[in-house]
Amino acid sequence: MSLKIIHTSDWHLGKKLFKIDRLSEQKLFLEWLGDFIISDSIDILLVSGDVFDSPTPSNESVKLYFDFLKKLSIKSKCMTYIIAGNHDSGKFLEAPKEILKDLKVTICGKLALTDPTNLSTEHKTTLRYDDFEINLVLIPYFRSHEILSLNSLPVHDQDGPDPDNHCIHNRFDQLFKNLLPGKSPNQYNILLLHHLLEGYELSGSEQIIHLSGIDGFKKKLFAPYFDYVALGHIHKTMNFSSGPCQICYCGAPLKYRFDETNQKHITLLTLDFKDQTFQPKKEHLLIPSFRDILSLKISPCDYEDVIGQVIKNQAPSKLPPLIEAKLMLDLPNAQLTQTIKDLLLKNNIEDFILYTDFNQSMNAPATPTLSEFNDYELTDLFHLFYKEKFSQTPLVDVNILESFKELLSQTHHHQNNNDNDAQDFS
C-alpha cells in the first residue's frame, strides 16, 4: 500500500506585481494542480500558509479558492489540510471550517493551547491505514508574544544570544513532546509550519520583517518528533534534513518578482507501507510556466529588435508576457517612451512596466526649465531630486529606484480606486 501527498504553499491569491493583476495565472495554476491531484489519485494535499496575499482578499480571489476546494471534493478522494500564513487572516480562513469539513478540508488559522504546555487537539489529525498511522500537526503562523505571554514559561537563558528564541524553542519542544508522546516505527509524523528555518535563502519576493519575533527555528527541534516538515514562507524550493527528518520549503507556485530566476515546484511525497515501516520518496515536480516574466534592458537603438524577439518567442499556449523594460537613455525622451508603449500595446502586451534609467557614463539629466517639465517622466524627476539631494552620489541606487517605482504604482492604483468611488482591499 502507498500514500501520495502533495505539499504546496504561498499561493498569494490576489497578489499584484506592481499594479498588474496575477489572478489569471493563479487560476491556471490551480486548474493544473487540481487536474494533477485527480489524475494521479493524490490522497492528501498540504497547503503551508499564505493562501491569500491579504487578510481581506478580493471576491475574485476567494471565489478562486472555493472553486478549487469544491473541484477536489467532487472529483477526487483527496483530503486537504491548510494553515494560515503571515499574509492570511486566520479568522477569515477558519470562518467556514465547519462547512469545509464536508468537503474533506481541515483548516488551522490560529495557535490554540489548552494550557501553557499543551496544544489544542485541533492542531493534530491522525489518519489510520491498517496497522499504520499518519499524524498531521498543523501550526499556523504566529507571533512570539502568543508564546511568551503564557504563564509558567521556562526561565530565559540569560547567557544565550537570543533568550526569547531559546524560550520559544523550549516551549515548542514541550508542546510537541506532549502532543506526540513516543514514536513507533508504524507512525509517520508530518508538521505543517509557516515560518523561517535556520539556513534559509530568499527568492526576493518574500515579506521578511521578523514581525513574529523569531529569526528561525532550529532544525534539531523537529528530529525527535517528525519525519517530514512541510514548510511555507520562503518562495524558492529548499531542502534540509535533521537526522531522518526531511524538512522542505516547496516554494511559491509563481514568480512574484521580475528578478526571480528559480523554477517553481510542488513537492510529491510518496509513502510505501512495507515490512511494518514507512519507505518515503520525495520528488519536486516542475510547475508549468503559464506566463513569461521578463526583465528587459533596451536602448533607443535596439528596442524594436528586443521587443520583436520577445513577440517571436511567445508560445501561443501561454498568456501574453509580463514585461519590465528598462530604457537606457542619455537624456529624458518622453516621446520615445510613448512610442515603446504603443509598440507593446499594438502587439497585445498590456501588462508591462516601462521606466527610464540613465547610462552610468553620463551624469543624471540637467535640471529642466519650467517649460520642459512636460517632457519628463516622474522617474526622471526623481533622478533630478536625488542628484540635488545627494550630489556626491548623483546616480540613484537600484533598490531605492525600485522602491520609488513600487510606491508610484501603489499611488496610481489608489487614485484609480478613488476615481471609481470604490476601495480595493486586495
Tell me what the structure shows:
Helix 1 (23-39) runs parallel beside helix 2 (59-75). The chain folds into two domains: 2-286, Metallo-dependent phosphatases (Purple Acid Phosphatase, chain A, domain 2, 4-Layer Sandwich); 292-419, no CATH class. It has helices spanning 23-39, 59-75, 90-94, 97-100, 145-148, 163-179, 303-313, 334-346, 378-389, 398-419; strands at 2-8, 16-17, 20-21, 44-48, 79-83, 105-108, 113-115, 118-119, 124-129, 132-139, 187-194, 228-232, 238-242, 245-249, 265-274, 277-286, 291-298, 319-329, 352-358. The two termini are 44 Å apart. The protein is built from ten helices and 19 strands. The protein has 426 residues and is of the alpha/beta class. Helices cover 29% and strands 27% of the residues.
Produce a short descriptive summary:
With 426 residues, the protein is α/β, with parallel strands linked by helices.
For the record, the CATH architecture of the largest domain stands as 4-Layer Sandwich
Distance between the termini: 44 Å
Order of helices and strands: EEEHEHEHHEEEEEHHEEEEEEEHEHEHH
Q: Which runs of at least 5 residues are low in confidence (pLDDT < 50)?
A: 155-159, 419-426
Largest sheet: 6 strands, mixed
- What strand order characterises the main sheet? 6-5-4-1-15-16
By CATH's scheme, which homologous superfamily of the largest domain applies? Answer: Metallo-dependent phosphatases
